[in-house]
Amino acid sequence: MKVEAPKTPTQTYSQEEAFQKSLTYFKGDELAARVWINKYALKDSDGNLYELSPQDMHVRIAKEIARIESKYPNPMSEEEVLGLLEDFKYIVPQGSPMAGIGNKYQIASLSNCFVIGNGGMSDSYGSIMKVDQEQVQLMKRRGGVGHDLSHIRPKGSPVKNSALTSTGLVPFMERYSNSTREVAQDGRRGALMLSVSINHPDAEDFIDAKMTQGKVTGANVSVRIDDDFMKAVKDNKSYTQKFPIHSDNPKYTKELEANRLWNKIVHNAWKSAEPGILFWDTIIKESVPDSYADLGYETVSTNPCGEIPLCPYDSCRLLAINLLSYVENPFKKEASFNFDLFKKHVAAAQRIMDDIIDLELEKIDDILAKIDADPESEEIKGVEKNLWLQIRKKAYEGRRTGIGITAEGDMLAALGISYGSKEGIDFSVEVHKTLAIEAYRASVYAAKERGAFSVYDSEREKDNPFIQRLREADEKLYFEMMEYGRRNIALLTIAPTGTTSLMTQTTSGIEPVFLPVYKRRRKVNPNDKEARVDFVDETGDSWEEYVVFHHRFKEWMQINGYDTDKNYTQKELDKLVKKSPYYKATSNDIDWVSKVTMQGAVQKWVDHSISVTVNLPNDVTEELVGQLYLKAWEVGCKGVTVYRDGSRSGVLISNEEKKEEGSTSSIFPTKRPAILEADVVRFQNNKEKWIAFIGIIDGKPYEIFTGLADDEDGILIPRWVNEGLIIKNKDDEGNSRYDFQYENQRGYKTTIEGLSHKFDPEFWNYAKLISSTLRHGMPIEKAVDLINSLQLDNESINTWKNGVARALKRYVADGTKAKGQTCANCDSTNLIYQEGCLTCTDCGSSKCG
């Protein structure tokens, strides 16, 4: 029987209607409600909302899954699928599948992540620009992208063009990074992973690119490290880099001390959490798809978070199973894990994942039809069309899936097991082993009913370590796979669940809880005489502090008879946490060696990879970071990332961190650093093109200069320059002078002198005023209000004012309420900042610039 696709909904709802309904759905959790509305609720390009709450979304997804199921034997009904999805309890499609399934208003892919790249050692400008265009085309369809740069010849290599020698790969890192920053994806930005082999002669420049130049802010970077390099590090020996990498007849070689480069990797990771490390030989050796490398399935890079190593033009869709939901009698002595229900749902999840591939193939056909219908020439459309044809081929042939988990930390706590303990590691391994076996069993049964992936060959896979572990664990399953094949080339991953965990209201992915208790501040209405004032900020606004409990910590409190409404002191909170199963089990508490040991043990049962971060306190040594990396390699991790507290700005802090009495209100160093990273923002001042140079410290604006993009002296800031450095110098007379330094496309540094005088003598006082308020901690949105309130006469100055305000809006935290602003669409005053734009929470309309 033919099942028709569901009709596109036509009834629309206001932002407030959806918020109130979703707030009820999430039991008062405002953050979860806002995240769902902004990222996953069905909406069109005009901002019209067609879903009131996640229940509508789950019905939409269930209808589509059931439609695909009806094409195959023994189909699941819509009701069965809905029962698995409702309340985010058991099975949770992640990101792109959640937003895109059944969505007729956007032509977007259902894949969360892609890897692209040219065949062989292609490194011409044509191939480099082709990759740039491909990543943008994928990002506009909502996908995250990864690609490797090891094919680009090293710096100084001879080339047969006007440059004579190659610039190396670093300038192209910046190009790809900038392209990523320019692509919007409905409330978020594109995501990019750039990788390079440690065997490449430019690997050191790659490792330093984000450190010394403050660049490549639109990409994550990881180094592909082979076993030979790790052995050289361990044995304190030299290591030979080559180009082409790992070639028997390289055109270029470079010998270095392995430990010197290793120490640089460790130092940079300690300082900035990058680069990440990919243990490449482990990845390739364990990879089931690499059994088909000669058929186009050779793994070359990973997605932006590193959990899916992929071949060029393959993609993956992600789904998480909520582990907490299988704990019966949670947080009680009799708590247990329902393995039988878990096995049943893993089989259903794998089946749903295979259905989503069919839905993705439909989406790709829609994208191809859109490309064909576009009025542009075939020459212009060629790269995009070819890209999607290749992606379609890989999805159809390999049918790759990405089943993962969330709530591992909460699952262990609910069972009374300490995260990172030997008992915790053993239990987690048992859960993931069960998940692997049952997912592969479901894929074998699907092959029996629906057919195997088209290039399946048991002979190719027989020596793969992962397949051999499956055989040892369940020989019957192995021989059934030999007989019927498998529906999917690879099946499993553990991704960071991010916003998904906000909606499941659990810990994220495989991670422990970040904090069981933290504090937020609520602004006090000056007219409310009964309100409690706990904090007064530098602008004189009063705030009340209130405790926020992690949802499952609160559940533990309720089950154990603790009052969740009481206003606890810090001492009382500390005692509560000490009694709970979350004690010494937060991301900063657990033993770091145990965490990488757990990751390595679980990795044995995950055919793709695991995204996990080892959180370290601020005072750890670089030596410890190096030891953790080495341990991760030894225990079989495929990749590892460390984060040292405070090495990046914008991270949550605990309740106990308070401003010291008598401290300055400035959020910056009391003395201006000699060199600042800078962002460049262009704007129109009347009919002239102007530029704002914004000095940055820890990701926050510190000062601002403005000027003509092309001034009287003919100084032109090239269009491609988005970042650089502001350097404090002295002029010939000994006066202070600020210069802007950036690199041109050939890697040569160019300096524009005297920003404060050459560029904006007319507006210097205004810029000085704004810079002063920024340095002394004025919130960005208030600095924007200050700029807007300036009473200036000249129309061109007013336009300058608008341009500077727009430049600073980029740094306002998403969700900040905008004061004194009115929605042009519905006259509402309920506007918030999102991605530097003003977004109305009533009608959803957005105004940028």
Task: Please summarize the sheet with the most strands.
Answer: 8 strands, mixed
Strand order of the largest sheet: 11-2-3-4-5-8-20-19
Low-confidence parts: 649-666
Number of domains: 5
How many helices?
27
The whole-number mean of residue pLDDT values reads 85
> What is the CA-CA span between the terminal residues?
52 Å
Q: DSSP strand (E) fraction?
A: 15-25%
Q: Mind telling me the C-alpha Rg?
A: 27 Å
Number of strands: 30
Q: Helical proportion?
A: 25-40%
Quickly give the structural class: alpha+beta
Q: What coarse outline follows from CA principal-axis ratios?
A: globular
Enzyme class: oxidoreductase
Pfam family, one: Ribonuc_red_lgN
Keywords: Cobalamin, Cobalt, Deoxyribonucleotide synthesis, Disulfide bond, DNA synthesis, Nucleotide-binding, Oxidoreductase
Catalytic activity: a 2'-deoxyribonucleoside 5'-diphosphate + [thioredoxin]-disulfide + H2O = a ribonucleoside 5'-diphosphate + [thioredoxin]-dithiol
